[in-house]
Design brief:
The complex is a heterotrimer.
Chain A lengths: L1 H24 L3 H26 L8 H18 L3 H23 L4 H21 L1 H4 L5 E2 L16 H23 L1 H11 L1 H6 L4 H27 L1 E2 L1 H4 L2 H15 L5 H20 L6 H16 L3 H13 L1
Antiparallel strand pairs in A: 1-2
Chain B lengths: L1 H32 L6 H19 L7 H23 L4 H23 L14 E4 L2 E4 H23 L1 H11 L1 H6 L4 H23 L9 H15 L5 H21 L5 H15 L11
Helix pairs in contact in B: 1-5, 1-6, 1-8, 1-9, 1-10, 2-3, 2-8, 2-9, 3-8, 5-6, 5-8, 6-8, 9-10, 9-11, 10-11
Chain C lengths: L2 E12 L2 E12 L3 E5 L6 H9 L6 E6 L2 E2 L5 H7 L1 E3 L12 H9 L6 H14 L15 H14 L4 E5 L7 H16 L3 E5 L3 H7 L2 E6 L2 E6 L1 H6 L1 H8 L22
Parallel strand pairs in C: 3-8, 3-9, 6-7, 7-8
Antiparallel strand pairs in C: 1-2, 1-4, 4-5, 9-10
The chains are: A mainly alpha, B mainly alpha, C alpha/beta.
């Protein structure tokens, strides 16, 4: 057991060093862009995985927190000149607070109906931000004023700093997930994901655990929203509350291995590189091709290996042991 | 004022009939097969495109085309049950939710690839005609759709109540294990349930064509309505879905009339959230999953 | 010895069905009480009410001195009561050890300590060899053992066992009986729902009989099996002998239609 642990730790350590060194090794700006996208969605996926993977509460409305985080930091920056670094954290807290009423509503239904109600709440938020012009720019959204190189305002001239920020976010979320996995919370999450009644009978305060993990997941997702907005210098309700974000968060976790530490990372690498390849072969001309491929991959995974890529290897490994 | 309200109510009922067809399908599948068909709206869309092509290529009236769309979609439903759904039965929520969700994504995006995002409409001789009673205006197209929707719902109701297969479906919906012990073949029952549900969706699509445009994402609007109606009418309850759909049609219509043109969706969401907050088990107060 | 569990006038209706109808009984500390009755009598519903899975319509449930009716199951568990389910509910994706650790975490927040407590519990139930098996791969009987191990890991004072012996062969029943006795010797108060008469006779001195939601008899096993109401409930009125005659020896199992 310990040998495996050492091997594993060394591997992770090397991977981390590689990831830190990567921007120095890669010259293509395009490649860096793809990497940033991978890291971002791996981060969002890992955050989703806490609630959706371990606790099996399949939210398809996580973009609600993404969007709230995005708008919070943007409004704070444009209206009050507050740095997005602060705005990001505040945005996380806004997302976290939103998860309380949203959770209260949505957890009243179980299974697929929970999922639908999460979709509905995210949609309502988009509609609100679309309709109400006065406090948040309405349907046209706004651009973030370009300040050139302004590290204190989370703006940089090259892609590299953004890479490091999102890498940092991913590392944080992975570290949190790894810690949770080994601790009481992790066991409680998996237990309630498997059987809520049995979990309750074993002393698990299911309501509290769900609520807390939802808050954590929402907080992290909110951070992602701020990052993305700062990265593309633009925000509008369609982007900030885009259903595709919710889908991808869940998708990468399922394909990569739901309820596992590395699942979302692996899933993101697979899906995003597939997309990038498709885009370079087919260009963006055929609308719908990306999601067609995604949905085919998803169906293939569901029908053959519902535990995802990591789950598949875990089972293979267990059989041998 | 009364006339305005009456008009809004009538408009709401008329479209509510279509919502009913879609939501009955969802609730039927949920009740019998115990899965949620996220792709239900996409079959409405397929029904619409089918009718569109039958109309533009062969001149077949959309309403008549349900004679084609329903059987075709019934077969599609049986195939989906056999090849896809059967593989994830007995697994937990995750595969079941994401399978139909993936199916929905697939169908939408294939449609985007093949049909592009353009709106397609059909203009029939009765598309602009309407009855006028007093100050109230009832479009032929919508009236025909509503009547047929109610007829189909009624036929389904009779089927469920009186025929052996219908009873088998109700039995399987209430207690799958006992039903199996009674000799009911669940896969056959599920296939019929899927077939009927998709046929109803296809009918909804065909009936919509005279007055509604077809485009790849059109199903999303209807499936959302359907889900809210299913929850509101109590999961698995066909009559509940019907009544809830009509109610929602009226609510949406009143919202559009008195609050604003784009408030329809908000009204629906508010209804859903209110149901969740106050009575999650729906109007018929049945069971939660 | 004090009262561990006091049920007073417990009532629960589901629609038109009066599942639990004015039921009262008391279980003393370290006692093993058998709760019996024909199928559908309301025994599992009573357990669900006691553990907090349903709220009673009226009545009181006092466990270890605390009024617990209306509490959520995890709160009841925290107070010191645990249950097994009639149909075992393991956390399928977890191993045996992880399953039991989930229970152990109630009292041991630290992972390593929880693991120790879990191992003890697993050992007690004889599952040590299968510690790393996935729970969903276990045999039915082992899943029952797992249920018990997990419940024990929460270090309860009162244990509710719901038909743990159903479907076991005679030697397995003996093992199960020995287990229950061992648990009782550790100081646990046990309420056991069972159909197997000889098992009940072996572990319980105190019995409560439910039929159609109502308590129809209470007493020692000998008293209860001779009670005409009990005979009527299980076998039908044709078998009720007039008062004064005994019903003779019972066999190992009761049969009911």
């Amino acid at each position: 057991m310990n040998k495996l642990s050492l091997q594993y730790k060394t591997f992770v350590g090397c991977l981390l060093i590689l990831m830190i060194a990567l921007p120095w090794l890669i010259t293509s700006s395009f490649a860096l862009e793809i990497l940033v996208r991978i890291l971002l969605f791996a981060f969002i996926g890992t955050s989703w995985n806490l609630l959706g993977g371990y606790a099996k509460q399949l939210s398809l409305g996580h973009v609600a927190f993404f969007g709230l985080g995005a708008y919070t930091s943007t409004l704070m920056e444009i209206n009050f000149g507050i740095s997005p670094w602060i705005g990001m954290v505040v945005g996380g807290f806004v997302g976290m607070s939103a998860s309380l009423p949203i959770g209260w509503l949505c957890f009243r239904l179980k299974g697929p109906y929970f999922t639908i109600s999460t979709i509905a709440t995210a949609n309502v938020l988009m509609l609100i931000f679309l309709k109400f012009r006065d406090f948040a720019y309405g349907a046209e959204g706004t651009t973030i004023p370009n300040l050139g190189n302004a590290p204190l305002m989370m703006q940089f001239e090259t892609k590299t700093p953004y890479y490091y920020i999102v890498l940092g976010l991913l590392v944080i979320s992975l570290a949190i997930t790894a810690w949770i996995e080994r601790s009481r919370v992790g066991y409680y999450l998996i237990a309630l994901g498997e059987d809520e009644d049995a979990a309750e009978a074993s002393g698990v305060d299911v309501v509290k655990v769900k609520r807390n993990i939802y808050m954590l997941s929402a907080f992290l997702t909110g951070l992602a929203g701020t990052f993305y907005t700062q990265y593309i210098y633009f925000i509008d309700p369609q982007t900030a509350f885009s259903f595709n974000v919710s889908i991808e968060a869940a998708l990468v976790s399922i394909v990569g291995g739901i309820g596992t530490l590395w699942g979302p990372v692996i899933g993101t690498v697979l899906l995003e590189t597939t997309t990038a390849l498709l885009q370079s072969y087919l260009g963006n001309s055929i609308g719908g091709i990306q999601l067609t491929v995604y949905s085919l991959i998803l169906m293939a995974v569901i029908l053959s290996r519902p535990t995802g890529i990591v789950g598949y290897f875990k089972e293979k490994f267990k059989d041998r042991a | 004022m009364f006339e305005t309200i009456l008009q809004a109510v009538i408009n709401g009922l008329l479209i509510g009939g279509i919502y009913a067809l879609v939501s009955i399908g969802v609730t039927l599948i949920f009740g019998v097969v115990k899965i949620v068909n996220f792709a239900q709206g996409e079959f409405v869309m397929i029904g619409m495109y089918l009718s569109y092509y039958l109309s533009t290529q062969f001149g077949i009236d959309p309403v008549v085309s349900i004679l084609f769309s329903m059987p075709i979609l019934f077969v599609v439903g049986v195939l989906i049950q056999h090849y896809l759904i059967r593989r994830v039965l007995g697994l937990n929520d995750l595969p079941q939710i994401f399978l139909t969700f993936a199916l929905s994504l697939l169908i939408i995006n294939l449609s985007l690839m093949f049909f592009a995002a353009n709106y397609r409409t059909i203009h029939t001789w009765y598309s602009d005609e309407a009855f006028h009673f007093g100050g109230v205006y009832i479009p032929y197209a919508k009236l025909v759709s509503f009547v047929l929707a109610m007829v189909l719902s009624g036929v389904l109701w009779v089927f469920l109540k009186t025929t052996d297969l219908g009873k088998a479906m109700r039995a399987a919906s209430q207690n799958r294990d006992v039903a199996q012990l009674m000799g009911i073949n669940p896969n056959r029952v599920f296939a019929v349930a899927l077939g009927i549900a998709l046929a109803l969706a296809g009918a909804a699509g065909s009936l919509l064509m005279p007055f509604y445009p077809a485009y790849p994402l059109v199903g999303q609007v209807f499936v959302l309505m359907a889900f809210v109606a299913v929850v509101l009418g109590t999961l698995g309850n066909v009559m509940g879905a019907l009544v809830a759909s009509l109610l929602m049609g009226v609510a949406e219509s009143l919202g559009i009339q008195f609050i604003g043109a784009d408030s329809g969706l908000i009204v629906v969401f508010v209804l859903l959230l209110a149901t969740l907050a106050l009575k999650p088990s729906g109007l018929a107060g049945g069971w939660r999953k | 010895m004090s009262d561990a569990l006091v049920i007073k006038n417990l009532n629960k209706k589901f629609g038109g069905l009066h599942a639990v109808n004015d039921v009262s009984f008391t279980v003393r500390e370290n006692e093993t009480l058998a709760l019996i009755g024909p199928n559908g009598a309301g025994k599992t519903t009573a357990f669900n009410l006691i553990m907090g899975f349903h709220k009673p319509d009226s009545g009181s449930i006092k466990a270890l001195g605390h009024e617990i009716s209306g509490l959520r199951p995890h709160e009841v568990c925290e107070l010191g009561m645990a249950r097994t389910f009639q149909v075992a509910k393991p956390f399928g994706g977890m191993t045996v050890l992880e399953n039991v650790m989930t229970g152990a975490f109630l009292r041991q927040p630290n992972t390593n300590e929880a693991r120790e407590v879990a191992r003890e519990s697993i050992n007690f139930l004889g599952l040590s060899a299968k510690e790393n098996f996935a729970a969903r791969d276990l045999t039915t009987i082992d899943q029952r053992r797992l249920e018990m191990a997990r419940a024990l890991a929460t270090q309860p004072k009162i244990l509710l066992l719901d038909e743990v012996m159903a479907g076991l062969n005679p030697s397995e029943v003996d093992q199960a009986v020995a287990l229950v006795k061992k648990l009782s010797s550790r100081g646990l108060t046990i309420v056991i729902v069972e159909h197997l008469m000889r098992a009940i006779m072996a572990v319980a001195k105190h019995m409560v009989v439910l039929d159609h939601g109502q308590k129809i008899a209470e007493g020692s096993p000998d008293e209860v099996i001779q009670n005409p109401e009990v005979v009527r409930a299980y076998l039908g009125s044709g078998y009720v002998k007039p008062q004064g005659e005994t019903n003779g020896e019972t066999n190992g199992e009761t049969h009911h239609d």
